[in-house]
TrEMBL record:
It comes from Pokkaliibacter plantistimulans. PROSITE patterns: PAC, PAS. Keywords: Kinase, Transferase, Two-component regulatory system. This is Histidine kinase. Gene3D superfamilies: 1.20.5.1930, Histidine kinase-like ATPase, C-terminal domain (3.30.565.10), PAS domain (3.30.450.20). Residues 20-66, 155-213, 411-447 form the PAS domain. It comes from the Bacteria. Residues 230-283, 357-410 form the PAC domain.
Amino acid sequence: MENLSTLVFPNISADTLLQENSLLRALIESMRDPAIFVTDPDQGYRFILVNEAVCRHFGVSRETVLTWTPADIDPHYDPHKLLQLENYLAIHKTHTFESEHVLPGGRHVPVEIIVNYFEHNGKSLIVGYFRDISERRQEERRRRAEHVLQQRFKIEQQHKQVFDNLTDDFYLLDITPERRLLIVDVNKVSAQRLGLPAEQIIGRYLDTFLPPEKVASCYSQKLICTDTGQPYHYEENVLLNGTLCTFDTTIIPIFNDQGEVYRIAGISRDITEKKRQEMEKLLREQEFRALVEHSRDVVIRYDTECRRTYANPAYLKIAHASQMEDVLNKTPLDDSVIKHNDQALYDKIKNVVDSGTAQELDIIWTDDGIEYCYEAHLIPEFDNQQHVCSVLCIGRDYSQRRHAELALQKREQEFRTLVENSPDTICRHELNGRRIYINPKIIKMSGGLSRVIINSSPLEYPGGEEGLMYHNKIKEVICSGENLEFELNWMSIKGPACSLINLVPERGPDGRINSVLAIGRDITLLKRFRQDLEYSRSQLRELVAHRERTREGERKHIAREVHDELGQQLTALSMEIQSMSVRYGKSDEAFTQQLGRIRKQLQHTISFTRNLVSRLRPGALDMGFIAALEWLVEDFKQRNRSCECRLTLNCADVSLPEDIATAVFRIVQESLTNIIRHANASQVHILLHELDSHLLLGIRDNGCGFDSKRQHSESFGLMGIKERAIMIRGELYLFSAPNKGTYIELHIPLGNTRRGIDEDSLVDCR
């Protein structure tokens, strides 16, 4: 204590120092816990002050402790680490940590230490205290062990709940030192099967439930896993209530902390029904054999090596075999029953084995001048692991059908006669595109060019881009196997012609495409009429665009005239009324009331005039396109307060030419008007997004929607929207369905933002 006084209070008088020193000593030494200490970094971190609790902790005198440093009692700290701790305390001032002390007797004691950095008059000290936390550590270990036991009990309860709901028998058996099996748990299924409550089963030996002659075999099977340490699986037959049942049993070893098997878990599944089904399958197999023995179809079973394992009498008759052994264990390559088809059949069988999918094969051969035609169906058969174990081949004689097909070919010739007189052009192409047939219609339309057309490909005639397109269309039909229709421009004797060509794939008996039939219909006049119609539409749209521009100009002019002239007159009237009110209003109350009614009517007229000007030409358009959209949104909210309307802008301020900005403004205005009139929506969202090549304007509502695929002859609003989109060379998309709302999306090319509408280039953008 004297050491601390001289360090901390060097300038205090001796009496005061002794008094305070005595008080401090009494205060510190009277504390039984915690143990308080002070170390001096300048003296190698030696303890310069400790209380009685420190001495009692180490079991030595204070003089002995004052010769120590923390490194003498804490194996985790050396002078280097003490220096690191001092540097840490110089910054953070305090530190709490756990460590351990080595007592003079060698015993290690865990402690919790709190140290503080103290500095006075340029002198640095480390003041701290520690507590023995051995009892706390023991309590923590006890709680952890208790928590582990609780978790283990919880898991066992969960497992028990699972096992109680299993449809299989489950039981736990303890292995006694005498290698007897003691039942420690069973699930509900096991208890029901034994006909006793679980409480009367648990605690009894397994052999008490077994016939004496079954005890030895049952124990030997169940104890196999104790020797191997691995689960053991087997099937066993058990007589229950006079019925022989078959169980599929798995025995699982359970190990203790020493790695010894002290308990086994058994799961038994009743597979009596499964065994019965296997027997039924065997009976069905026998019935199958009895059926195919008398079938007129050829039935052969091959193994995975393509060897015959069964053949019915129908095949023996074709193979001229007297008994089944003459054809068994042979592949189709080992005999020549089906002549040159043996390799194809062999390959098909291998394909079925490899792929696991059924295949078909036509087999035709001649024997003694008789033609045999069989349609072979190769069907894979699977084992329990879903692996192909054999292939069943069923061959059906279709010789009569083949004769019918030959007759059909004859009728094909008759059909050719019909084609010769068709008003449409008909030609047949080989797979390489070469024409192998043209009907008289082509010859008549092409004149002398018919000699060039026959035996030529589209690349040769008509050649050029049209010929290349024609040739590619033929390839596309061959690849897809589907019909294809396109227009072809070519030269007839009367001049340029246009035909609508329909390409039809033609298949052979094997189902493969062997040619392509081209049927063409002359649509030259039809296409000419269509071009005239498109030109007429283009002119009509130009007229509509001109009308819209004229109308917008008139609206703008009328709005300006109404705003300037009528607005000034109304304002003048308002001022006159105000002057009359000031001059004569106090003299006559009736006159004042009359002026009030006139003023109110005038205000209604001014408000109506402002609305009329806004409808004809909103002033927001003069402030910019985005400002105009914002004005529309606010106007919509005022007109329909029950509907939420949002505007999302994902672009900077966009500068559009006046005619384009006005057209887009009218599209949005008409869309919002339609929503108010028809949609009955509660939410409307308007999006303006700038992309690389165009501006995207989207308008979405959650209203009642409509069928957008139907034609709405009276929907002039939608018609006007579409026409305005075409006028600005934009692309308009409309998506709607009943009860699904409506979404309108307009793509405005960015080129349109730099120039106005060019009447000469105005076309149908759709």
